[in-house]
Structure to design on (493 residues):
């Protein structure tokens, strides 16, 4: 019968297994728990991979060897599913195999353990192989136990009355392994879905393609850099995963941003440029009519033709410029005052008020109203992410993603948060976002700038303007985490 101590070990093993969620560590816990319950010297855990059993964990207490459990499988060849191998037979038959002495057994092929003994000086004697099956009876692998020990530490055969307890723990281990696999698969599915959604948003615009992907790469590398440094901040695997997911989702709200705003490469829309071309051509044609009617001289017509063509050329340059200097604004004021008389005798401006207002945008291509539409993507991001039920370890994704345009001096949006209300993770996302916006050459309103100039701007935003976190900005610059990642094109590398 099972002793009280054995029952206690079974219960303890169950508690340990039910609380473990990391697959690599779980396999280690499984083998250690079963070995302790069986009081044996060595053990190996195999999992099915394709048409073979693959080594995952190996422990040999007397030799002080322990391999696997860190995500790297032991350097051992897989066991093919042939019935002459005791592990494969146990797996195929779905039943526990007990061998008192492998050297006298003729039922199975023990050449592998014997070769291992010859190499290591170990002596394999008793063996117990227990199959692992989940609730649905699906076979996952086997646990091979070697050299059961009596109270004095002598090798003995595995007691038959322990088999049921070992099978119970192994069965629970199989269920836990399967559950962890399911959770991993669900998590990977969710992460894949997040990446697909993010890519779909980026792909809506050729001017935003790969933005989130680049930022996610920057983020992963920057976190790894921070973890290599002494002091704070330090990120666990889960913390890093939560931050990177926030990066992937930070622009998800752009799914509702009108393409004509998101893709606007110039101050004027094409339809407005067409109107101006038509208007200038009309002015020239009306001038020719005035010449024929004697109201305009040939010299005056030539001057009018030259002025309208020069005006068109200047307007196109202003429309496409990244920044508008004072002299261009002054020219716009002057040209906006010019008028002509249309065919019906009505006085018309060379530029409409809407055209003048758009052309007068000092920086970028968006009007104040268009900028509000563009900036609304962060509130849409918050609204969309509020519909997702994140797990506890991803619970801050929504908050971090929706706040990436907040700045430490309160000049950001949408809530104009100040330093004390902006988490460290949001500060990191903001730095990454600003950096990519500066260096990327796939934006509609500007060419990408050289990296060193972008870093200078980041430094100024942190240490002169008070917008970015100075310490994190300095560490980002030190990290060089963008190196080797194409910044949309090749010229900024």
């Amino acid at each position: 019968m099972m002793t009280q101590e054995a029952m206690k070990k079974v219960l303890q093993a169950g508690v340990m297994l039910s609380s473990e969620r990391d697959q690599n560590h779980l396999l280690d816990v499984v083998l250690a728990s079963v070995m302790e319950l069986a009081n044996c010297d060595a053990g190996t855990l195999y999992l099915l991979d394709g048409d073979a059993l693959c080594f995952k964990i190996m422990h040999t207490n007397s030799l002080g060897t322990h391999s696997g459990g860190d995500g790297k499988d032991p350097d051992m060849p897989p066991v093919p599913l042939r019935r002459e191998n005791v592990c494969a037979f146990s797996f195929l038959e779905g039943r526990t195999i007990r061998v008192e002495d492998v050297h006298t057994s003729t039922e199975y092929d023990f050449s592998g353990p014997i070769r291992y003994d010859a190499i290591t000086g170990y002596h394999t004697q008793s063996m117990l192989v227990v199959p692992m099956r989940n609730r649905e009876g699906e076979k996952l692998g086997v646990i091979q136990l070697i050299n059961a020990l009596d109270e004095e530490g002598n090798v003995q055969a595995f007691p038959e009355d322990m088999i049921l307890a070992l099978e119970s723990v192994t069965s629970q281990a199989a269920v836990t392994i399967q559950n962890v696999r399911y959770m991993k698969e669900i998590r990977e599915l969710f992460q894949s879905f997040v990446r697909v959604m993010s890519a779909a948003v980026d792909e809506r615009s050729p001017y935003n393609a790969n933005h989130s992907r680049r930022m996610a790469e920057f983020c992963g590398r920057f976190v790894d850099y921070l973890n290599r440094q002494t002091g704070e901040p330090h990120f666990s695997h889960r913390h890093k995963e939560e931050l990177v997911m926030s990066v992937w989702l930070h622009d998800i709200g752009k799914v509702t941003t009108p393409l004509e705003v998101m893709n606007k490469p110039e101050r004027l829309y094409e339809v407005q440029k067409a109107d101006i071309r038509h208007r200038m051509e009309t002015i020239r044609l009306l001038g020719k009519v005035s010449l024929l009617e004697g109201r305009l001289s040939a010299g005056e017509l030539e001057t009018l033709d030259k002025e309208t063509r020069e005006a068109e050329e200047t307007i196109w340059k202003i429309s496409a410029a990244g920044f508008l200097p004072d002299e261009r604004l002054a020219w716009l004021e002057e040209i906006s005052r010019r008028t002509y008389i249309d065919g019906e005798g009505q006085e018309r401006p060379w530029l409409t008020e809407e055209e003048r207002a758009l052309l007068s945008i000092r920086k970028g291509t968006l009007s104040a109203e268009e900028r509000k539409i563009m900036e609304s993507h962060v509130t849409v991001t918050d609204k969309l992410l509020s519909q997702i039920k994140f797990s506890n370890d991803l619970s801050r994704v929504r908050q971090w993603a929706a706040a990436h345009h907040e700045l430490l001096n309160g000049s950001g949006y949408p809530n104009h948060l100040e330093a004390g209300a902006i988490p460290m993770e949001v500060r990191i996302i903001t730095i990454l976002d600003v950096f990519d916006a500066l260096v990327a050459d796939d934006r509609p309103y500007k060419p990408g700038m050289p990296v060193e100039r972008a870093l200078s701007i980041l430094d100024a935003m942190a240490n002169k303007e008070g917008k970015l976190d100075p310490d994190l900005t300095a560490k980002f610059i030190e990290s060089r985490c963008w190196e080797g990642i194409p910044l949309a094109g090749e010229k900024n590398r």
Observations:
- The mean pLDDT is 88.
- The radius of gyration is 36 Å.
- The chain has 18 helices and ten strands.
